[in-house]
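User: Show me sequence and structure for the first protein, then do the same for the second.

Assistant: Starting with the first protein.
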Amino acid sequence: MKFNVSSKTLYNFVSSVSKIIPAKNTMQILNNFLFILEEDMLVVKAADMENTLVGRVHVHDAEGSGRFCLDARRIVELFKELPDQGILFEIDDENLEVKISYNNGCYNTVAINGMEYPDKARENSAEETIEFTCSGQQVLKGIENTMFAVGTDEIRPQMMGVLWDVKPDRVIFVATDTRKLVKYTNGTSQPGVTCSFILPVKGASVLKNVFGKEEEIKVTVCPTAVVFESPSFTFDCRLIKGAFPDYNRVIPQSNPYVLTVDRQSLLTAVRRVAVFGDEGGGLVKFRFTPEKLTLRACDNSYGTSGWEEVPCNYSGSELMMGFGSQYILEILSTFSTPEVVIKIADPSRPVLCLPADNDTDCELIMILMPMNIVD
């Protein structure tokens, strides 16, 4: 076998596909890429014990066909350092010696027989599936707006992923860790089907990093797995089992007090005040008054404290609430609008955080539980 390919093009594909390979594999063979040459198409495949990611790149002057495995780390590092130029691969079909050459250099290695790479075809491939198509931007925004709220508690595995609640006219992305909840609705493309599944964090990260620039993504859902496919990549991801909590039940419907504030001003003020607060809980006290929002934090162990006032527009009774600085910073950093709206009921009930304006056909809702405080 032999073929010619652009070093930059191949690097883009192997670096993307390598994102699925964990730092430690129980199967040594999974530390390798599987390369499959079929006419003028080179398939690059990587897998862990549950997921598979495949990239497809066109090559030139191809001769022969077959499959072989090469060490993933070595290949990625080599092509990362190469300037953009044509690279010639020559593979001896008998002893699997590999020669990688270009204008001013040559590297030699020995491949592993591609037949040793595990075939991770789904056992449930014959089971009923649901298919729909969505845009890459729809998926990217859904993951960017929700992934920070995914839970990490292994006692609640259903919360350790992003829920896709697919409706005929929209896709709803939801994530929660019981302290905060995010619901992002995007109707820019209409799936035309109804289904739901919980995508693990690793799967969401792969979609964000690999499929974010794809114009269109075909999604095939089966009982235990989901397959995302574009012209360049195919990602087969195992799903999280179980039922996701009923997120609509926890969204407040009657928070009468409304605060409107400049997002960047509040974000930077929380960052500064939190420096002088308790590093353990990160508690920041918010005092809501009609024309200003006062932030306070202290750490009695070190005798530090700080406060700041942020101009705002607030309609409601004067009250005080406590929030974990980490949570409020995550929420404010995720919003992109100049102003944010916070709707409040009382210090013991969750607050509703909203952007001042939503994009067309989109809606972003965030819920944050307050912390107990002693005034």
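Switching to the second protein now.
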Amino acid sequence: MLDKFRFSIVKNYKIFFAISIIFLTIGFGSMIMRGFNLGIDFTGGSIMDLKFSKAVTITEVRDVLKTHDLGNSIIQLESKDTSATSAEGVLIRTGVIDDAKRREVMSDLTSKVGKFDIQRVENVGATIGGELIQQAVMAIVLSWFLMIAYITLRFEFRFAIAAIIALIIDVSVTLSYFSLLHIEMDSSFVAALLTVVGYSINGTIVVFDRIRENLKLRRRTETLTDMIDNSIWQTMTRSIYTVGTSLFAIISIYLWGGETIHNFSFAMLVGFSSGAYTSTFLAGPLWLFLRGKKAGE
């Protein structure tokens, strides 16, 4: 069914590499210039998730916070309509404040803005936030080293390096989107990244396993380029089905899963899409170049 769409992925590697390089350049530029919108889990501070009995505006809430020297707090309206100027749900992020001051703020909000129900109140120290960042980085890097060891034992070292490069690209693409769109990153983002790593490596291993099988059966007249292309296209139907069903589930969670897991599902949506791209269009050519060969050889 896919034969009429078939083309040489390896020989067109420059196109696929260029797409990745251009996007990663923009992404890294955003990371350096804009940074990330780190959530309270990473930065430390206090968070108040309130649901008012009537729709309120950010200005109304900020005016109350200013009287408590909290005018620089981050205030977000919880509404499906991104253009809405008022909403019943309000998320307030401040620096770390004690219980007494929080009660004062809530009392003023009740008297000056309106009655509300408390959905969530949390305090996270800056030290805990720093430790979480360190543990997140360690978890991801450790997973890479364990994968290098496993793939080297099952396949060979060059397969492992190609797979890890693809994983680094997937993680970088996910980070780039969160930086470019300035989406809040919390502890669930770490879980999403580890899920992306697991999904991406699975797709890459399927392609590499077929390459390894075809490498043993390769005829002398068949070039490595043709063998890699054949291997990728032989797994293409399986890849499309896997990616399609996975993205269908993730998009459903993203659209109807609620605000709590919205950013988590978005990270997986970006990461899974990138993983499908790198497994199909980058991993095979990377392995070829690591063997010291050129496209067409």
